[in-house]
Amino acid sequence: MSTTRNLDRLAGPEQRAGIFDELSKREIRRAILSGVAIPGYQVPFGSREMPVARGWGSGGLQATLALVGEGTRLKVIDQGEDAGVNASNLRRLVVDHVGCVPETDTRAADVIQSRHRIPEQPLAQGQVLVLQVPGPEPLAGIVKEMDEQRRMHAEADYAKMWVRLYEDIVHNGVITASAGYPVLVEGRYVMTPSPIPRWDVPKLHDSEGLTILAAGREKRIFAVPPHTRVEPLTFEDRPFEVEFTPGAACRMCGTARGYIVEEPGEGGAPPSWVCSDADFRQRCHAGELGPVLNTPAAGSTPAAPAPKETSAR
Prior knowledge:
Shape: globular
Order of helices and strands: HHEHEHEEEHHEEEEEEEH
Largest sheet: 7 strands, mixed
């Protein structure tokens, strides 16, 4: 083999002209591998300039671009919707840049990029979920100094976090954290699964798929590998609760087993409810998920506040 051919082989495939070069993708992949090796640990990375502003999904976009290839089936959702403006624009951006295959069926997707939701369909082995993260630091609301935050993580000193949760119960009667509910990953690091609602937190535990959380503004990547223990922080006499409104069901498919959001009525009409996961809603409406879905999920407990759409920014 000639020297020229050897050099071409070492250089890898020809770089596509566009928004993300191969060296940047490799750095992201190295950070992801470090995150997989230490579940819940925040790995710094060199966040690049993206066509979206930092704080508006640039971390998730970089992680997705580093993972997908031409044959990858990519699903992009925003609040569970495939057809939202944010989801459609990001999907078109990645597909045009990489040449991957757009997908809306959760079961068929290789990589799922999401803002605010984990799909109702459990992830399968080999699937990767990429979450856009607006605030990766669970201790940010407790201590402001970054050096102190790092010390607390290094020493697993989360006493102030427990005190914050206890004070929340004393003042409000319940733990009011909704998006970003703190969880303990593999018994070591406290992580905020921002920006998903409490409803989705149990899906992280012992999942078959890999979850990657990327924050472009804070330049942090962390991960939950398959079959990892993810335990919501709570007390023995205060079990973890998910959002649930008694009697509320999706007006389109009739189920109460998915995460539903309130829609205001038009012209003074009362509000209605609808499943936020478009793929789950369509399959349920088509009868693919059976007739027993009109009861709340096992373990659901009525909790305030009602499941309304939340904005992480």
